[in-house]
Amino acid sequence: SELIKPYLGSKYKLTEVPKSLIFYMSKHSGPVNEIQWCPVWEQSHMLLSASMDKTVKVWDAVDTGCCLKTYSCHSCAVRAARWSSCGRRILSGGFDSTLHLTDVETGKQIFSSKTEFRISALKFHPTESNIFLCGGFSPEVKAWDIRTSKVFRVYKAAVQQTLDILFLPEGREFLTSTDSVSRDSADRTIIAWDFQSAAKISNQIFHVRLT
């Protein structure tokens, strides 16, 4: 894009707050819960957003700022949405307790499933493109395989809900965060897991409220 070409490859001496607004993208009618740039280099101008208005949108966030596509497969607020590594699919989950894997071009669902809890966090495995983790308003985080449309591993912790999930490089371990609060302190706020064995590597206790 000619708009951002001057900024590519420059070596910033310090980080500053942007001085001008480039785009104001306002097609959502509710709060936006998550955004993510497309991971494919040739499509890296596209931005994914998930909203409380029950929709997932794809934007041209570099050249025009316009909404390219809207997906309305959920019946309640969409809390989490992620690009697949190939950039041709979008995984989404929300407060309707459903998972959808949607084809970006056609808008059709490649994979759909119902869970036992409202979904608040989704993450694809960094090296296994058919595997993802799903967490939400439940003490469990589940690992899914798209090829079989089934859960193949469950990670159990004595927490109220999972707020976010982060894979460490190579995908052998991952972190989950929660807001389990007891006596004005956050208990087991961040947990490190072994992906293969589902064992807790670390069960930290922080006496501050971390979200």
From TrEMBL:
UniProt key word Zinc: no
- Identify the SUPFAM superfamilies for this entry: WD40 repeat-like (SSF50978)
Q: Where are the WD repeats?
A: 25-60, 71-112
InterPro entries recorded for this chain?
WD40/YVTN_repeat-like_dom_sf, WD40_repeat_dom_sf, WD40_rpt, WD_repeat_protein
Which keywords belong to this entry?
Answer: WD repeat
Pfam families assigned = WD40 (PF00400)
* Recorded coiled-coil stretches: none
Q: What SMART domains does the database record attribute to this sequence?
A: WD40
Q: Is Repressor among the key words of this record? A: no
**What protein name is recorded for this chain?**
WDR25 protein
Species classification: Eukaryota, Metazoa, Chordata, Craniata, Vertebrata
